[in-house]
Amino acid sequence: MSGGKNERRFPRARLRVPCRLRTSSKEPYKAGFLVDISASGIFVQTATRAEPGTAVEILVDLEEGSEPVQLDTTAVRLKQSHRAVKSVLQGGLALRINKAPERFFEQLVLLFDD
Fold this sequence. Notes:
By secondary structure, this protein is mainly beta.
């Protein structure tokens, strides 16, 4: 029993970074925000829905003027907000990172050095 203690494998950072995501290469990208991130996963605030196990491609602009970083992820959990609070509390997707370029992890280290 954890006793309410946070026992995550990796430290997490809270942030708000615009991103785009899609669940199929045949779909257009949809908007979202990375709001929670660690070395193993991210939470994206979005109206996009994906069942656990679904592959999700994320594009993140880490630095202005540079090419976006592509993250290959898998949906772990779908968080839906009750319709009464949707205008102030948006749901989203908890995603496991399967593949990301080195520069994504380099930027992630900078988040935890602050």
